[in-house]
Write a structure and sequence with these properties.
The longest helix is centred in the N-terminal third of the chain and has 19 residues, at 92-110. The protein has helices at residues 16-31, 45-51, 68-81, 92-110, 112-122, 130-140, 153-163, 223-231, 253-266, 295-308, 347-352, 364-370, 382-386, 405-414, 428-439, and strands at 7-12, 36-41, 56-57, 144-148, 168-171, 193-194, 202-203, 217-220, 239-241, 272-278, 314-320, 337-340, 356-359, 375-378, 397-399. The chain starts with 6 loop residues before the first strand and ends in a 15-residue tail after the last helix. The chain has a seven-stranded parallel beta sheet with strand order 3-2-1-4-5-8-9, sandwiched between helices. It has 15 helices and 15 strands.
């Protein structure tokens, strides 16, 4: 098997995860001539990668790593799990392979009874296909494995590479706040983060921080994130402050031009535009009336559609999470409302075209704050209460509940606040590529300069 001087495996799920990885791929190619990069693009990530011109792999492309008997068993398991786990942006063959291989890995690792119990209780959220990822790594023989902070296949890839003695690099897109043992799947000493204002609010979040198996290097947003990980027991020397590569495009002048073109296309050049970036809630919380699922996202959309009709000078973009948008009723656009389909429109121009962004806990809120756009965050979100609150971090203005949205929006649009401390310029992809170079310096014949701040 012929190999280039350096081979890298990158693993990413869809949404913000693949958005972090793609700029780093380009930066690595620019810095390492002849580098070979395999991209395992999971679920919705594969379509995004292919549209970006990348030759991506999915689980269906790797079925040959199983024996014929294992393939048959995996596909049968996949068929039993397909209902409720399909997505229009993922071909059925890929869904069957992804679900089936992950389920088979559970059966082989835990035994049939325990595997069935995990699937009954957690569904696909119980996946951790480390056995299969060991086969993938043995087949591809990378010199370095890079993934983001997603669980399941991404975590398994990092752990499998570590088992093989291969350097690993993780990119963390959130805040590294210690996980609450009552919330996360894996317990560790929790870290309490106090709100920066006079509020007594505090929260626990981010199961990534609770991981006991660490990558060789982790790249984070800012010094505060590094400090959170260190407080959770991560060695400071393995953490680099690079920023988030997914945000780099927000600083590209062509993206600003795309945002203005969007305003012109919609006839909203002189409108005050509000972007609703909503998501399903993964779990409930006793402190809020909103349950797990789509209820809060749908209520937010309904409230904002009614509100915008009271503001002739305003307009609304409705954007649901790229993995779930197809579950929501798509009402007809009108002169003041546009429903954005993720596979048709990039999120970056939508953010840059906006005068205010409304979120629960999606990364879109942080993206908007990075470029100085005001953010409103729903404190009634189970995720904000049991995970993390953008308001507590000083990234967003707090909105207590859905009924409070109209007044909060009127104030935000009529009294623009100064940019938060999170607003910054960014060339994070270059910084992450620099960190990768430090891990593979022996393969490229010498030391490489680090791109981030340790």
């Amino acid at each position: 098997m012929n190999r280039s001087p350096v081979s890298i495996l990158m693993v990413a799920y869809g949404g913000g995860h693949i958005a972090m990885v793609l700029p780093v791929i380009r930066a690595l190619r620019a810095r390492i001539p002849g580098v070979h990069i395999d991209l395992l693009a999971l679920t919705t990530a594969k379509r995004t990668a292919l549209e970006a011109g990348e030759a991506a792999l999915g689980y269906a492309d790797l079925l040959h790593l199983l024996s014929p008997a294992e393939q048959s068993q995996a596909l049968e398991l996949g068929r039993t799990l397909l209902e409720g786990n399909a997505h229009p942006d993922v071909p059925q063959a890929e869904s069957l392979a992804y679900l089936g291989v992950n389920a088979l890995d559970l059966y082989q690792r835990l035994g049939p009874a325990a595997a069935r119990d995990v699937l009954a209780k957690k569904g696909r959220h119980g996946f951790y296909p480390i056995g299969f990822l060991r086969r993938v790594i043995d087949h591809l023989r990378p010199d370095l494995v890079i993934a983001t902070n997603a669980p399941r296949s991404e975590q398994a890839a990092l752990d499998a590479a570590g088992d093989a003695g291969i350097p690993t690099l993780a990119m963390l897109d959130l805040f590294g706040v210690g996980a609450n043992p009552g919330v996360g799947e894996r317990a560790s000493r929790p870290v309490r983060l106090r709100a920066p204002s006079s509020s007594s609010a505090s929260f626990f979040a981010d199961a990534f921080a609770a991981r006991t198996r660490h990558p060789s290097r982790v790249c984070v947003l800012a010094g505060a994130v590094r400090d959170n990980l260190v407080a959770s027991g991560w060695p400071c020397e393995m953490i680099a402050i690079t920023g988030n590569p997914a945000f780099d495009a927000l600083f590209d002048p062509t993206m600003r031009e795309a945002a203005m073109a969007l305003r012109k296309r919609l006839g909203w050049v002189n409108k005050k535009i509000v972007l609703l970036a909503a998501q399903p809630e993964p779990r409930g919380h006793p402190a809020t009336r909103w349950p797990a699922g789509d209820a809060l996202a749908q209520a937010m959309e309904s409230q904002l559609r009614a509100w915008v009709m009271t503001r002739p000078d305003a307009a609304l973009i409705v954007r649901h999470h790229p993995n779930h948008w197809h579950r929501y009723p798509r009402l007809a656009d009108n002169a003041q409302v546009h429903f954005s389909v993720p596979r048709e429109e990039s999120i970056d121009p939508l953010i840059l075209a906006s005068d205010c962004v409304v979120v629960q806990t999606t990364t879109v809120g942080l993206q908007a704050a990075t470029v100085g756009i005001p953010v409103l965050a729903m404190q009634c979100s189970p995720g904000a209460l049991s995970g993390f609150s953008y308001a507590d971090l000083g990234i967003a203005q707090r909105v207590p509940d859905v009924a409070d949205l109209p007044a909060a929006l009127d104030f935000a649009l009529d009294h623009p606040a100064p940019a938060t401390a999170w607003a910054r310029n960014s060339r994070a992809a270059e910084a992450v590529a620099g960190e990768a170079l430090t891990l593979i310096a022996p393969q490229i014949g010498g030391a490489a300069a680090s791109g981030g701040e340790a």
